[in-house]
Design goal:
The chain is an alpha/beta fold. Helices cover about 35% and strands about 15% of the residues. The protein has 12 helices and 11 strands. The strands form 3 sheets. Strands 8-7-6-9-10-11 form a 6-stranded mixed beta sheet, sandwiched between helices. Strands 1-3-2 form a 3-stranded mixed beta sheet, covered by helices on one side. Strands 4-5 form a two-stranded antiparallel sheet. Strand 6, helix 10 and strand 7 form a beta-alpha-beta unit. The longest helix is centred in the middle third of the chain and has 20 residues. The relative contact order is 0.10.
Amino acid sequence: MDRLMRAKFLLMRERPFLKKLIALMEFIPTQDTPSMMVNESLEVFYNPQVLERDVGELACFLYHEALHVAFNHFRRMKKVNAPLAVKNIAMDLEINDNIKADIARSEKIRFPQDFIHPSDLGLPEGLTAEEYLRYLISRSAEFSDLINSYGQKHAPGLELTAPEGKGKKIRGKDRNLIGKLAKEVIREGLRAGKLRGRASSLLDPERQKPSLPWQVVLARLARKIYEGRLQRLDVTFRKRKKRNPTEFILPSEIGYTYNPVVVIDTSGSMTSDQIRKAVAECVHLLRLGNSKIRIILFDAGLQGDFYTDNPLKDLRKIPGRGGTRMDLALEYVAKKARNHSPVIVFTDGETPWNEVKPVREPVIVCLLSRTGSAPYWAKEFHIERRGH
């Protein structure tokens, strides 16, 4: 069995969520690329010299190329006006950041030394390719040597063009099928805890738009849910309909009110600064129209469930500080807080999530850490420092 085939089997065994994508790839040897690259048609062009590498490193090359497809880099980068090398560096930073965090404890898949990582450039981890692109453009003078030499000194190389005279065009139907497969890969990777939380933004194009301050986003989202619920009316026979021109007894209509429930992660992994941010935002939620708000404190189990009109006073002491089980917290909400909407969760994201959405109401996950992740069925955004 040749080395490339062994690397494919190793990657599919260690990372099963990539199986379908790897199986559809066509591998083409060529001298026109320094190491390895993939195009939109799932053609992987590789230099035969790359096969001299260790099987574990070769599996990491395949992992890298598969994530180019899963992260939809071809379509995302077409919308960006920037030099080709800068685009490739930004894409590789996003991918290699995910891979290195995933295989940190793996003894079989190995991260090549010539793969570039955000830490090598003094850049923060956990960002998207578009965010890394802004860093590279704003500091182009600092990174000029890297940009000019990229694809020669660093692997895998330039991605957005096929070797001259090679590569087939992709049809619209095939592009849609590959797009669906890419989303499936991301969902499975997030469920397995192999991809960072920002990858979930690729499941919803709206999340790729330039970000606003998170307080504005949360207020808009909560208000949008509230306005949508106002249009959903229920009926009850507990009260007669007052304007009833007929002799029949008709039920009166019931409108919904904005009535959120806030779940705060009180586990040991949450820093005091992160909990302080969550408590401060509870005050902001009260200003949207409620005199009181329901708060549930949860770590590995229930630590508190109460209504408050003064979160700063009632949340001075935070109980718990144990493990993190937001999946159990949402199951508790489904049983004990059914009439609340939306469900707002403040957590660092270092927790298992439910595979299937446990509540009917909209769920908003406010991540207080760059490394955390949210489930694919929830609305997600990151609460960052300096008001973002």
